[in-house]
Amino acid sequence: MDKYEIMFIIKNTIEDETIAKEAENLQKLITNDKGKVIEFKEMGKRKLAYPIKKELMGSYYVMTVEASHDTIKEFDRKVLINENVLRHLIIKIEGE
Could you write out the three-class secondary structure of the chain? Predict the structure, then answer.
């Protein structure tokens, strides 16, 4: 299993409970597929540098995970179809 850092932005125009639930569901995408969430940080609500899908604010999250390539590929696929996620970035951590 490899280590990855995943950052995602959830749209801010939905309710706070829905934002928290969405973040939890994204963690479950990793853990349900035999991955492990090492660290999970809520970075808070911030103004976006530019509008994304007509949104001006977003809730930022960063998590470090240990997962297989297939798990990350499936996570990426599901996040792309999730309308509540504005952007996401997956970085493979090398040499650890």
Answer: CEEEEEEEEEECCCCHHHHHHHHHHHHHHHHCCCCEEEEEEEEEEEEEEEEECCEEEEEEEEEEEEECHHHHHHHHHHHHHCCCEEEEEEEEECCC
- CATH architecture assignment, domain 2-93: 2-Layer Sandwich (3.30)
pTM: 0.89
Domain ranges of the chain: 2-93
Whether 12 shows a pLDDT value over 80: the answer reads yes
Q: What share of the chain in percent tops pLDDT 70?
A: 99
